[in-house]
Design goal:
Blueprint (H helix, E strand, L loop, with lengths): L2 H5 L3 H9 L5 H19 L2 E4 L1 H9 L15 E5 L27 H8 L3 E6 L33 H8 L5 E6 L5 H7 L2 E4 L20 E6 L2 H11 L28 E4 L11 H16 L3 E4 L6 H27 L10 H11 L3 H22 L4 E5 L18 H11 L4 H6 L3 E8 L5 E7 L5 H14 L8 H6 L4
Helix pairs in contact: 3-4, 6-7, 10-11, 10-12
Length: about 475
């Protein structure tokens, strides 16, 4: 099996090849590891390589390297954030968590293992996912395979870069403010954020960031994402709630939706313009949708972004502060000056300065936003907007070395004004790779829907994938480096 063979297949096709014994799980892992070794020094997407860990998983199959599960034998990477894997180090992108090795599997990990995936490493994340970039001081910047001088987006930037560079066809990701959709947008990939409560957060948490943050994957194909949703969705015993609606979602990929009412907006919720290339991508997507029989009209959800981010940072910052407090208790000391980044310190300090009443008001505002979004989606089926305000920016343009909370918050608010509202309201949303700039940088297009309506998004994404395919597009890094693996 060559790298050229490997990258032509998504995870579903790889699994089928392994089942048919066209190649083995060990051979697929060999190619994935060779590819990692060839390109990771350039992109810094994988921060922990775990070959022996992966080989043991294959051996533990049926003795001959075969495994059970829909994705049996497919190489898989997990994000270095909030997903415990027994025996696999996890730093959460933070120097304060160096040396931490979980001794249990997260509920989601258990389902990934049951699906047959072979975990062989961790991908880069900014410290606790607190940025739309992936440039942690703990590991150094992750670089975009489409242009090494540009950012991958965040916080699942390592996963997105690893997929775009041909290391894996699909990888674990999380989304607390856009962290699945934003790196998917910057790396030319498909990224679906599920509805709040769709996937489990146990056994440690009932919900992450009060339900603001959710896990799933980034992938090249829509069907891989839909299949993973089928395999991992559903509440586990003791979970506080479950998302409305249910699958199976995989059959919907090849079932075009009925004519949809689509609300298009090319300005931010505050009415501000975006980069001309971003606007052009959204407008082109609108025209494509109209040609497919959908009804597209100008409409937007108006939100006070200052107010939204004030509540967002209180909820996320309080949750992160609690994790740092627990880590300090376990180590018997607070973090040193080089073990926590300036922006993280500022976010935690901002949250700790608030009162309990402030925290409750933030939660109340969050749920009020959910009702506002629900009313909006009573009048339309899908909202179409940009993902980011700009195409990928140069590495270093946004930095967690910023120590002033207001400066950092404004920087993020200006760059990602579209995605966080779906985290706070709880509804599903996705980035679809439909546009590239004249100089070859990907620009993802954002679609959002009402609570529980992943079905609409998956149907729409499948339709777009058929008429405007993207899997054939490969960054120059992959084309130039494929001979090395």
């Amino acid at each position: 099996m060559t790298h050229d063979d490997y990258v032509q297949m998504d995870a579903t096709a790889l699994a089928e090849g392994i089942r048919k014994k066209s190649f083995s799980a060990s051979e697929a892992l060999d190619v994935a590891l060779a590819r990692l070794d060839a390109v990771n020094p350039q992109i810094n997407a994988v921060v922990h390589r775990a070959e022996a860990f992966a080989r043991a998983q294959i051996t533990e199959g049926h003795g001959d390297g075969s495994r059970s599960g829909f994705f049996a034998g497919v190489p898989f990477l997990v994000k270095d954030l909030s997903l415990q894997v027994n025996g696999l180090p996890m730093t959460n992108g933070s120097g304060f968590f160096r040396g931490y090795v979980p001794d249990f599997d997260n509920t989601l990990t258990q389902r990934q293992r049951a699906a047959g995936l072979v975990i062989f490493g961790r991908t880069a994340s900014p410290e606790f996912g607190l940025g739309p970039i992936t440039e942690p001081a703990n590991h150094g910047p992750c670089r975009n395979p489409w242009s090494l001088g540009h950012q991958t987006g965040g916080s699942s930037g390592g996963s997105a870069a690893a997929i775009a560079a041909g290391i894996v066809p699909m990888a674990h990701a999380t989304d607390g403010g856009g962290s699945i959709r934003m790196p998917a947008a910057h790396c030319g990939l498909f990224g679906l954020k599920p509805t709040r409560g769709r996937l489990p957060s146990g056994p440690v948490l009932g919900e992450a960031w009060n339900g603001v943050a959710v896990p799933h994957v980034i992938s090249r194909s829509v069907r891989d994402s839909a299949a993973m949703l089928d395999l991992t969705a559903g509440a586990s015993p003791g979970d506080p709630y479950a998302a409305p609606g249910q699958g199976p979602w995989l059959p919907l990929v090849n079932r075009p939706p009925k004519s949809l009412r689509i609300a298009l907006s090319t300005v931010t919720p505050a009415g501000l313009p975006v980069h001309p290339e971003v606007r052009a991508g959204v407008e082109a997507a609108g025209r494509l949708l109209e040609s497919l029989g959908h009804h597209v009209e100008q409409a937007q959800i108006s939100i006070d972004l200052d107010e939204m981010y004030r509540h967002f940072w209180l909820i996320s910052g309080t949750n992160v502060a609690a994790i740092f407090t627990a880590r300090a208790k376990a180590l018997g000391r607070p973090p040193g000056p080089d073990e926590i980044e300036p922006a993280t310190r500022a976010i935690i300090a901002h949250a700790r300065a608030a009162s309990a009443e402030d925290y409750v008001r933030a939660l109340q505002w969050m749920h009020a936003l959910g009702r506002k979004m629900g009313a909006f989606f009573a009048r339309c089926d899908v909202a179409l907007t940009p993902v980011y305000a700009n195409p990928p920016l140069p590495v270093g343009s946004l930095s967690m070395q910023t120590a002033d909370f207001a400066t950092y918050s404004n920087m993020l608010q200006n760059e990602r004004p579209f995605t966080a509202m779906y985290n706070l309201s709880g509804g599903p949303a996705m980035s679809v790779p439909l546009h590239w700039t004249p100089d070859g940088l990907p620009v993802g297009i954002h679609f959002g829907a009402d609570m529980g309506r992943e079905d609409l998004l998956i149907q729409l994404a499948g339709q777009l994938e058929q008429v405007a395919p993207w899997a054939h597009r490969r960054p120059a890094l992959e084309r130039k480096s494929s001979h090395a693996s």
